[in-house]
Amino acid sequence: MNGLTDFIQGVVRGAIKLLLVLAAAIFVVSLLLAAIVVMLAVSIWSLITGRKPEPVRIFSQFRQSSARFTPGGWPGRSGGRKPGEPAPEIVDVQAHEVPDSPGSDGGKPRAGRPGGGEPMGRVVH
């Protein structure tokens, strides 16, 4: 009797696993089909209106702006430079300390400046 119940449990477990794998496959296929339908709809809409789809436009703007800051970062791009143009020269500068506020004289109010020596005085008034 024990062998019969083990066989039935094995068949039921196999059937449940098969059912779950089949459900997962149907889910993945339906998700891919929905993505294809949305992609086609957006492509047709962009052809009708004559404009690029928004994600394509945003990504192309991202590529253009990032190419300015990372030369050679994107494949096939020259970092915003024309072919044959020399690389820009890098100049190192001497660092110096900048005072907290220009003409700071201990917080005394200056004439013509609202709020006196307070930097936020301009914003509040």
Explain the overall architecture.
This protein has helices spanning 2-49, 54-69, 121-124. The chain is mainly α. It has a domain at 28-69.
Brief characterization of the structure:
This protein is mostly helical.
Label this structure with key terms.
about 120 residues; mainly alpha; about 55% helix
Element string (H = helix, E = strand): HHH
The overall pLDDT, averaged over residues, is 76
Structural class: mainly alpha
Largest sheet: none
Low-pLDDT sequence parts:
none
Oligomeric composition of the shown chains: single chain
**Radius of gyration from the alpha-carbon trace, in angstroms:** 33 Å
Q: Percent of residues in beta strands? A: under 5%
List how many beta strands DSSP finds. 0
Shape: elongated
Query: Termini distance?
Result: 92 Å
